[in-house]
Amino acid sequence: xxxxxxxxxxxxxxxxxxxxxxxxxxxxxxxxxxxxxxxxxxxxxxxxxxxxxxxxxxxxxxxxxxxxxxxxxxxxxxxxxxxxxxxxxxxxxxxxxxxxxxxxxxxxxxxxxxxxxxxxxxxxxxxxxxxxxxxxxxxxxxxxxxxxxxxxxxxxxxxxxxxxxxxxxxxxxxxxxxxxxxxxxxxxxxxxxxxxxxxxxxxxxxxxxxxxxxxxxxxxxxxxxxxxxxxxxxxxxxxxxxxxxxxxxxxxxxxxxxxxxxxxxxxxxxxxxxxxxxxxxxxxxxxxxxxxxxxxxxxxxxxxxxxxxxxxxxxxxxxxxxxxxxxxxxxxxxxxxxxxxxxxxxxxxxxxxxxxxxxxxxxxxxxxxxxxxxxxxxxxxxxxxxxxxxxxxxxxxxxxxxxxxxxxxxxxxxxxxxxxxxxxxxxxxxxxxxxxxxxxxxxxxxxxxxxxxxxxxxxxxxxxxxxxxxxxxxxxxxxxxxxxxxxxxxxxx
Amino acid sequence: xxxxxxxxxxxxxxxxxxxxxxxxxxxxxxxxxxxxxxxxxxxxxxxxxxxxxxxxxxxxxxxxxxxxxxxxxxxxxxxxxxxxxxxxxxxxxxxxxxxxxxxxxxxxxxxxxxxxxxxxxxxxxxxxxxxxxxxxxxxxxxxxxxxxxxxxxxxxxxxxxxxxxxxxxxxxxxxxxxxxxxxxxxxxxxxxxxxxxxxxxxxxxxxxxxxxxxxxxxxxxxxxxxxxxxxxxxxxxxxxxxxxxxxxxxxxxxxxxxxxxxxxxxxxxxxxxxxxxxxxxxxxxxxxxxxxxxxxxxxxxxxxxxxxxxxxxxxxxxxxxxxxxxxxxxxxxxxxxxxxxxxxxxxxxxxxxxxxxxxxxxxxxxxxxxxxxxxxxxxxxxxxxxxxxxxxxxxxxxxxxxxxxxxxxxxxxxxxxxxxxxxxxxxxxxxxxxxxxxxxxxxxxxxxxxxxxxxxxxxxxxxxxxxxxxxxxxxxxxxxxxxxxxxxx
Lengths: 493, 489
Known about the structure:
The structure holds two protein chains of two kinds. Helix content of chain A is about 40%, strand content about 20%. By secondary structure, chain A is α+β, with helices and mostly antiparallel strands. The model of chain A has no long low-confidence stretch (mean pLDDT about 90). Chain B is an alpha/beta fold. Chain B is about 40% helix and about 10% strand. In chain B, a hairpin with a 6-residue loop joins strand 10 and strand 11. The two termini of chain B are about 25 Å apart.
């Protein structure tokens, strides 16, 4: 008989992801979506405040974005969807129930492929449904030591999409890869800002372990308070080790919710599931069921952009780039679009692609990152980058100069050629090119050479001028002068 | 032509004519109604909030608009609003302690409509708490008295609206009907009460009780007035997703004084054994009158699921109510208990002290019916029976233009008579509830005064066929004198 301490364990993870949708107004009322700096309780109305007598009206855009997400995740889109009331009491829940979708969600049975260390695995997506977010509570202790809670209703009624995965995830790495790819898709299709740090994407992994080879699921623990990809990884890793430890020492896993404390690196019990509510779901009588016509679904599908996976494949095939480069280029749709726009400006795109990719993934990405600017807000345009690469390849400027030009274009949005001219950066061409120009100038101007050798200082200025002319002004005059002096046997004295 | 006295006794259309001819001003009319309220309301107690200053102001505005030849059937007409309908800046209590101090920051759709048409709001009327009740006695504030017999209830839950119209304290009123709450008090108080098709009138601003059943409608002194008020408040509202995009006809055009060519059905199940003899006799007489008016009356109609309607209703309405009333937790508005040990204690005590017994009873019923393990047996089954009830009505309407049935099994009962017996109280609505379950339009019309107390019948119509319902009611009304009786106050 095997004992627990001798068993090998397998990790089983299911992921629940909530994402705020990028609509213009809230889920059921005309209020604008609050911004990060909205003062508390300003983006509110009687409807999202849950006042007596108000009624919800479905935000069509939110339904479209959910369907588009479903399509992006290869889901079946329901022909009939319905909203339900999920009943529970909490001060952040204005109506005492949340309008959600219980047994007729908009999307079901999807799949998301993730890649970890070169290996690809499909993670099942159980369902994608639409609901409304709740208000935000702030627990405060004032200087007098009294503690109380404040409610900010701005977030109440913000459209919230929930994406539930099958328990198909097996490692913390896969969990992270799933979230990274999901985030990328949500951003690509414009469904969500999907920013965990800002709280508009939240994830709750359900973690359990079981003896390797077993097909039964172990008791799961839900992890909350995770607001970065790093936390996802750390929290799951911690929880798996904890569960294995408990089982190895003969203990049992309690079904519960644990909150991740990044400070201590622990997930601590939040509330036991025994206390969990009977949500008493029932169909929302204020909203008629939704009939989702196939025409509408196809119309939404026709508006769907190329998804990250397809883009990666295409970039690799068309531009012959490495998976590493492609992965970085397709991190966001805007970055990929920028890349393609810049590449498209030249005829021989395949040759140019690597250079553009290097800039986009290298200096450009670093600057954007350092200055916290999104690529779509950057002052550098694809035309700029293309022009810059032209200047380099024509030998007009050196690589080092190009970096300086790029910096200037990045900062001020001025065209590289303009910067080069104004800053005189075009003068800087490679030394051997200047040297051959010097040779030609010396050969072509015997009189001046003689004058110089005869001690006529001014003659060198004439020769430098000729070198400049020969190189169409792209030489550094000091370099030209040095080379001339060396060639003519040192300065006359 | 001399102005008839007293002004408060006028119907809406009579008053509108006098206003249009400038023989009476809205200010005079409004003052007459306010005086009447001061004269009788200490006995009737129809109002929870009086809006005298606002009413006089609105009357002056209406007179200004009339002087500019603006016309609207309700311009300058004093009306009363059931306190379950949100009125901007004027407290809206739903007859509950828990909303004692609640002042809505917005108007209900129907109030917007009435204000556009220039009505004058004299006050907010008393009601069973959150519209749960059939007598008005479940008001957290005070009971309302039946103008025909002050020791009796006026019916409910639109108790104050019915009593106010019957006693001349308003020319018309709005009520809400979830299981009979317009028709039953109209019947017991001797006025006309009209519940339109579900979806005909926007529920935006109507504080929800049973969301799939609730509907706002008028209580008036006569059928023509009901047509006028309905015409004003009906129509699509994008803020209510259950409000229908169906054209609203000119209802007054369907008011003709005969019933020729109409086939009316009388469902057998609405005349059970042991029915009150006064009600039965009044019904029989009314049906004969309808035949005299040219209608074909078919007494062989059957709606076999009718006996289940009450049970269905007491699953669905409390289930919806248990969620609708969850928002009253003392955190945001209304009564708030703050002396408790902690947040949960305060929320619990807010509800414990803020709600009355009947409301708590229904919240518990609904919570139970929706609970895991019971949902299928109760809520889901009730929805299935609801579908059956609908289908039976549909079938009956295949061969009948409208159905005629009693409204209340008995005339008004005594205050206190049924308060300790919820089941007896629930049975008051046994004939009105199926109509809500099927979402149909139905009007209650007085048809006799057995023992000096009013009784009535209801005309039930096809969905969105309010016109036929009004036509039947009007022809009957015009052929009889019942609507001219006024209570001896």
